[in-house]
Amino acid sequence: MCGYVKEERDLRMEKVRVRYAPSPTGHLHIGGARTALFNYLFAKHHGGDFIFRLEDTDIERNIEGGEASQLENLAWLGIIPDESPLNPKPEYAPYRQMERLDIYRKYTQELLDRGLAYKCFCTPEELDAEHERQVEAGVAPMYNRKCRDLTAEEVAAKEAAGIPYTIRLRVPANKTYEFDDMIRGHVSFESNDIGDWVIVKANGIPTYNYAVVIDDHTMEITHVFRGEEHLSNTPKQMMVFEMLGWKAPTYGHMTLIVNEQRKKLSKRDESIMQFVSQYKEEGYLPDAMFNFMALLGWSPEGEQEIFTKEEFSETRLSKSPSMFDKDKLTWVNNRYIKERSLEDVVALCRPFLEEAYDLSSKSEQWINDLVATYHDQLSYGKEIVSLVDLFFTDELNLDEEAKEFMKDETIPNTLKVFKAQLENLEEFTKENIQACIKATQKEAKAKGKMLYMPLRIATTGIMHGPDLASSICLLGKEKVLSRLG
Ligand code: GLU
After folding, report:
1. Are 336 and 291 in contact (CB under 8 A)?
2. Which band of pLDDT confidence, cut at 50, 70 and 90, is reported for residue 1?
3. Short-list 233, 200, 237, CA closest to 215
4. In what order do the strands lie in the sheet with 198-200?
5. How many Å from the N-terminal Cα to the C-terminal Cα in the chain?
6. 252 CA distance to ligand 1 centroid (A)?
7. Can you give the pTM of this predicted structure?
8. pLDDT for 100-131, tens place per residue?
9. How far apart are CA 19 and CA 54, in angstroms?
10. Could you give the CA distance from residue 183 to residue 277 in angstroms, rounded to a whole number?
11. Ligand 1: distance of its center to the CA of 454 in Å?
């Protein structure tokens, strides 16, 4: 058992340093964003630093601009790294694994020299065949340690013959690796369940479980929040920490994010937008997204769901899977939009309106009034387009319920009276329109629903919407009179 990992870190003595270490193989996914966000919140809560570094060793899968896109999307969320490849600290640089190969090489040599790692000349075909044999025999597949005890001469001869090799860690027998996970509590693994794993591939590039240890140590990382898929990697990493005589960080493995059917979010699941950039493009607010994502794994005190970054503490991290609840996301966004000034919300909506409609005949005041009418109900910027469609179309398409409602025999008279009222208006203002509605109530003897609903359906085509007088005012006299028949 590793004594040192159980040692409590003293947060008062040690500066907290956390990291987010994506592979630049794609854009910022909500899973990655959540990991970054918890590391960031933890660092800020403890006055520490949040480091962004890159695991770019899977060269084939790296995408053009992957690093920049990750950083840009994090910045949009308000997560600005204290250190990154773009703002490095010399004592920790470089921040991209492919620029750190010399650093890994040095430790690999040390492990080889100390007999803690060894060269393995088995071919992929041999390994595959062995794997198959073990599966058929019903045993857990594990490297058969064929090269573990080659003599120095055998190794030298194979190398001289140019046989490619990987480097494997000599996994200690009969050891328990245990640690206190910040989220899951006490976790333990048996070394006998872990085969001698590859630390350096045949192309000389280190594997994730190996390089991450060297990075975490040399960058003085104190705490690590990461996805639960890395829980079973942790004992492998602890072995390397132990062999090199280093202290492992304190880990917290975050639960899965699941969809509304409680299934693990897969990148192919199209029911949910999975990339942060998509939310940005649809006009979600970054601080609302930040709030929502923090709820994917943490619950604030009491029933409260809207909180500030300062209110976060790592004491209420959830152990059960976090459901990506789209209704909650729109609710949180709506709460943040309501708090924004009208000016901000107009700025948020304008690009979507411009793209969808011809605004050339509309005044600034009209656009402001339009957005103001929907300010309280809006969940995200792009939603404005469907909400305001009725102001831009000539044809109203009533749904069945509205059509049915309009069959009431009192309605034609109510509409006629209202139309006459409006025709007489000199100034088509919200207040005057409101007065016309009142006058119609008296003259047509229509009350409540039988007053408002016909007027709303006839003018806007829908049964529920924002303030009626405001909507009629925005539609303009000409359009309203023509809709009233
Ligand atoms: N590149 C790894 C990932 O994105 C990082 C794992 C870690 O944080 O240790 O999952």
Report:
1. yes
2. very low
3. 237
4. 117-120, 166-169, 198-200
5. 85
6. 13
7. 0.91
8. 999 999 999 999 999 999 999 999 999 999 99
9. 10
10. 29
11. 59
Task: Please answer whether residues 50 and 39 qualify as being in contact, where contact means their C-beta atoms are separated by less than 8 angstroms.
Answer: yes
**Phi/psi zone of residue 39: left (φ > 0), alpha (ψ -120 to 50 degrees), beta?**
alpha
Q: Indicate the top mutation candidate among 19, 23, 183 to test ligand 1's pocket, ranked by most ligand atoms within 8 A of CB.
A: 23
DSSP letter string, 171-223: PPSS-EEEEEETTTEEEEEEGGGS---EEE-TTSPBPHHHHHHHHHHHTT--E
Helices and strands: H and E segment counts in the chain: 20, 11
Output the six-digit token pair for 388.
């305001």
Residue with token string 């040692």: 7
- Give me the active site residues, please: 267
Q: Which atom of ligand 1 is nearest to the CA of 32?
A: 4
Helix, coil or strand: residue 54: strand
Q: Using a pLDDT cut of 70, give the percent of the chain over it.
A: 98
State whether the beta carbon of 51 lies less than 6 angstroms from ligand 1: no
CA distance 264 to 228: 12
Which DSSP string do the residues of 107-172 spell out, in sequence order?
Answer: HHHHHHHTTSEEEE---HHHHHHHHHHHHHTTS------TTTT--HHHHHHHHHTT---EEEE-PP
* Pocket probe mutation, ligand 1, options 18, 35, 56, 225, max atoms within 8 Å of Cβ: 35
CA 90/CA 444 separation, integer angstroms: 81
pLDDT digits (tens, 9 = 90+) for 383-412: 999 999 999 998 899 999 999 999 999 999
Q: Say which DSSP state 228 is in.
A: G
Both structure tokens of 345: 């919300």
Distance between Cα 56 and ligand 1 center (Å) = 11
Classified as helix, coil or strand, 225 is strand
